[in-house]
């Protein structure tokens, strides 16, 4: 085909070769697009050169500005070229496709202006013109095209309709977007394109709150093309909205399998004859929210994080360990220090390690949890400052913020380490780890915690996390001192826990147990009545505090590892006798 085209170019342009020359150019561009799967400027040059020869052969004047658009205007409007209308308009459709993929939208509008009886001012109006565009019958049956011109029209119409649907979707006009996506589906329904369209339709229905209908379209997208990865992700979002957490996690797992083990592309049997398909020329939806797919690292974090949050503990533990191995391999070196910027949009690696540790503890995999925890402590020990003063009412620079986070992460690691020692019946070692946690937190002093910016200040959230970590360390120490029968230290730490976070129910429980063990029954009753009278306010405060906690710390405070049922029963029995009313004990 290339050789034939070069031979024709060497000849002087004559009218008799017009149809042949245009058809050879049409076929040659189609063949290039089939091989290269993208439009290039050389395709424009090839078409422009042929048009110039045809115009010259018919002695037509387009010297006004000599532009490409002027060439097309002349070719489409010249009466002497009406007998070649089929191939000229076929080539015009091909030109529109090339310009469209090159995002030369105005040139496409200008190209089809001659076909309209009204001004074409935007892409939305262009869809109306394209729908009514009819390519004349072939005038020369002996000259064959390698690709039906009507299919070129379908591809252009599908591209325009689809792109306009994406625009309307971005403007939250989901009804119009759905209509345009349906138009695209009816014009060029290859399986892979239909999968994309079903995915976008499903996304629109999800945004409209029609979740079950959205799910049907997303399932259809996956059935049409198992490589429509965004349909898997959007399905997981729908399941999340429906509260079907197991289905959400299963869908994310299927997406993980697809991304980790992409199979070789397999052609669809009903699409083999499409020398060029619309999919290769529709990159326009890449900016669409409906087309977003998480990276493999983020996806594996979502799997682990959501499984943990939904109490699928054993699964979550496996996913976290798989994620950590993957991150190590991806970085091609040991895990970088937590203060080093992470691969967006993952959370800081330190938080991933802390979530992993807490999850492994709940899964009773203490040895693995200890290894992960120690890794974090080792990585951060050289970047912790000696002292910090943080004003919650002022912004801090990135360096200070990272240093503060390192203190919080490392203290949290010591807190989890202390818990593991406690679970292994090592109270003295546990107390040492709790003390390490508190010593780190004492390096930071927060000021203006009650300022007007507290609801929006990131530093206020960090201050809340710091206070909760301190409270947990005090309560943990109190429990361990109780086991060692050191009641004085146990009571002192329980008091400090309540002073740090008065709303913490476990600190109240620990205090009551200590007082009862010391046979200070009057104080038990007094403390209980004080708590009871402020219960509603304290419950509200505790609920608000928990909303600010990262998952690893939220799981820590929600899961009590140090329950002494006999002591709690003694407290309840005593209060039943004294108060003589039904009690709502905070932690029982």
From TrEMBL:
InterPro entries: FANCG (IPR039684), TPR-like_helical_dom_sf (IPR011990), TPR_rpt (IPR019734)
Cellular compartments per GO CC: Fanconi anaemia nuclear complex
Regions annotated as coiled coil: none
GO biological process, one term: interstrand cross-link repair
Taxonomic superkingdom: Eukaryota
Protein name: Fanconi anemia group G
């Amino acid at each position: 085909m290339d050789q034939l085209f070069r031979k024709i170019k060497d000849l002087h342009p004559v009218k008799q070769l017009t149809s042949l020359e245009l058809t050879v150019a049409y076929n040659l561009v189609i063949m290039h697009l089939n091989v290269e799967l993208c439009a290039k400027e050389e395709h424009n040059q090839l078409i422009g050169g042929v048009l110039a020869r045809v115009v010259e052969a018919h002695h037509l004047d387009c010297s006004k500005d000599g532009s490409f658009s002027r060439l097309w205007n002349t070719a489409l409007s010249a009466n002497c070229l009406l007998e070649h209308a089929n191939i000229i308009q076929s080539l015009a459709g091909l030109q529109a496709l090339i310009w469209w993929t090159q995002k030369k939208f105005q040139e496409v509008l200008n190209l089809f202006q001659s076909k309209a009886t009204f001004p074409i001012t935007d892409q939305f109006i262009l869809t109306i013109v394209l729908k009514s565009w009819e390519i004349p019958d072939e005038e020369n049956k002996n000259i064959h095209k390698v690709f039906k011109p009507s299919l070129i029209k379908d591809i252009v119409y599908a591209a325009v309709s689809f792109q306009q649907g994406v625009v309307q979707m971005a403007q939250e006009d989901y009804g119009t977007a759905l209509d345009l996506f349906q138009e695209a589906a009816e014009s060029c329904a290859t399986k892979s394109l239909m999968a994309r369209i079903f995915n976008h339709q499903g996304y629109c229905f999800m945004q409209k709150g029609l979740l079950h209908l959205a799910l049907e379209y997303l399932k259809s997208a996956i059935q049409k093309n198992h490589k429509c990865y965004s349909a898997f992700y959007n399905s997981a979002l729908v399941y999340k909205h429906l509260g079907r957490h197991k289905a959400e996690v299963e869908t994310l797992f299927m997406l993980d399998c697809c991304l980790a083990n992409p199979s070789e592309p397999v052609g669809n049997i009903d699409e083999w004859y499409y020398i060029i398909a619309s999919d290769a020329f529709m990159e326009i939806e890449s900016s669409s929210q409906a087309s977003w797919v998480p990276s493999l690292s983020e996806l594996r974090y979502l799997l682990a994080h959501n499984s943990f949050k939904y109490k699928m503990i054993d699964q979550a533990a496996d996913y976290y360990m798989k994620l950590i191995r993957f991150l190590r391999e991806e970085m091609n070196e040991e895990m970088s220090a937590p203060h080093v910027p992470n691969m967006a949009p993952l959370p800081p690696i330190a938080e991933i390690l802390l979530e992993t540790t807490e999850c492994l503890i709940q899964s009773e995999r203490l040895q693995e949890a200890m290894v992960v925890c120690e890794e974090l402590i080792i990585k951060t020990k050289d970047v912790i400052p000696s002292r910090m003063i943080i004003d919650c009412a002022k912004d801090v620079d990135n360096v200070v913020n990272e240093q503060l986070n390192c203190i919080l992460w490392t203290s949290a690691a010591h807190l989890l380490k202390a818990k593991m020692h406690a679970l292994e019946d090592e109270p003295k070692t546990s107390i040492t780890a709790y003390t390490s946690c508190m010593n780190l937190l004492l390096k930071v002093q927060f000021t203006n915690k009650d300022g007007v910016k507290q609801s929006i200040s990131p530093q206020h959230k960090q201050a809340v996390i710091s206070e909760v970590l301190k409270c947990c360390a005090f309560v943990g120490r109190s429990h361990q001192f109780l086991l060692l029968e050191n009641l004085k230290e146990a009571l002192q730490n329980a008091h400090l826990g309540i002073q740090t976070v008065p709303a913490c129910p476990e600190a109240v429980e620990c205090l009551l147990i200590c007082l009862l063990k010391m046979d200070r029954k009057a104080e038990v009753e007094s403390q209980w009545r004080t708590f009871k009278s402020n219960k509603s306010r304290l419950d509200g405060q505790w609920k608000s505090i928990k909303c600010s906690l990262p998952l690893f710390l939220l799981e820590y405070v929600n899961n009590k590892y140090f329950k002494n049922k006999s002591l709690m029963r003694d407290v309840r029995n005593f209060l039943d006798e004294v108060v003589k009313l039904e009690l709502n004990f905070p932690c029982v």
